[in-house]
Design brief:
Blueprint (H helix, E strand, L loop, with lengths): L15 H10 L10 E4 L5 E2 L7 E2 L16 E6 L8 E8 L3 E11 L7 E7 L11 E3 L2 E7 L10 E4 L2 E10 L4 H25 L11 H4 L1 H25 L7 H15 L3 H4 L1 H18 L4 E9 L15 H6 L1
Antiparallel strand pairs: 1-12, 2-5, 3-4, 4-12, 5-11, 6-9, 6-10, 6-12, 7-8, 7-11
């Protein structure tokens, strides 16, 4: 059932530079008090029933934690990975003004890929840089802030009293690379179907199928798709700054297609392996489409405060050893 259809103008979200200029012109003051922490498990609202809080006992740094009890103390993980899933928290602040947002997170899944979240402050994206906040691979808890392209801190404006902060799953920049990989996968499946129309699904390794003469477009396309998958790996690696072990599916498939392009006779001998490698690429795409993230708490603090004004993400070695 469709109740109505609404056509609205595209919302142009201003950059932080423009928003910061507005902050200055309107005379907004920076907060100078103590850090205000909201535990992630105390969410005001969640978009999905599966986003229930859970107990983490793997680290002494998780807040709160006790040595001999399982305490509900975080939210997220693999359950918080699908596009549009969101969690909203209520943050009560003592005065209207500019605040630094701190997100204590852990992303220990999908190494080599970033997880991204869109920030909403009282239902609106405050500036362009908040559309896709990136969280890199971290095996332990860490603190993330919003920064602009130059690495400078971005501050948010909060009203005195209650404010609602939401984080919604988005693929961010790397979504375009996943789409490129999906397009290459479609091409590979098409090539495989054309090949088995001639060779069958279990080709005779001693038969010359003359695929270079019967399917010259397929042989040429293999080199093209190998370059396309290489570009995906290079794009993601340059964006994330790290190369995960999950990219082995790309490496193996790219090498095999380039060998097929040089020597088409290998196709009949290695067709089963080619099918397996295509399946591995599909598995990677399914996993890369998700954006898992764990959040321990979010906090707001003084923009000009030193590092000591923000609670550290991890505790020292001796605290961990005792735990």
């Amino acid at each position: 059932t469709i109740s109505k259809i609404v056509l609205k103008p595209v919302l142009e979200i201003p950059s932080y530079a423009d928003v910061s200029a507005q902050y200055t012109s309107q005379g907004y003051q920076k907060y100078s008090g103590e850090e205000i922490i909201v535990e992630a498990e105390d969410a005001l609202r969640k978009s999905d029933q599966t986003l229930y809080p859970s107990a983490d006992t793997s680290s002494v740094s998780t807040s709160p934690t006790e040595n001999f009890k399982q305490i509900i103390n975080m939210v997220g993980g693999s359950r918080w990975a699908s596009a549009q899933q969101s969690v909203t928290w209520n943050v009560n602040v003592p005065q209207s003004g500019l605040y630094k947002l701190n997100i204590k997170f852990r992303k220990n899944l999908n190494q080599g890929m970033l997880s991204s979240r869109t920030l909403f402050v009282n239902g609106e994206i405050p500036f362009k840089e908040a559309e896709a906040i990136s969280f890199s691979y971290e095996s332990d808890w860490a603190i993330a802030n919003i920064t602009d392209d130059n690495g400078e801190q971005c501050y948010i404006y909060l009203n005195e009293g209650d404010n609602q902060l939401s984080l919604m799953v988005t693929q961010g920049v790397q979504g375009q690379y996943v789409q490129q990989a999906s397009k290459a996968l479609s091409e590979l499946n098409d090539m495989y179907r054309k090949i088995i129309m001639i060779t069958g699904s279990s080709p005779d390794k001693n038969t010359d199928y003359k695929l270079d003469k019967l399917l010259p477009d397929v042989i040429e396309n293999m080199a093209t798709q190998a370059d396309a998958l290489d570009a995906v790996v290079e794009g993601i690696t340059s964006y994330t700054g790290q190369k995960g072990s999950d990219f082995s599916a790309f490496t193996t498939l790219v090498y095999q297609m380039r060998e097929f392009n040089k020597d088409p006779d290998l196709i009949g001998k290695q067709l089963a392996l080619f099918k397996t490698n295509i399946g591995s690429l599909g598995t990677w795409i399914n996993g890369a489409g998700g954006s898992p993230l764990e959040v321990d708490y979010i906090s707001v603090s003084a923009p000009d405060g030193d590092k000591k004004s923000v609670k550290p993400a991890t505790k020292n070695f001796f605290a961990g050893l005792s735990y």
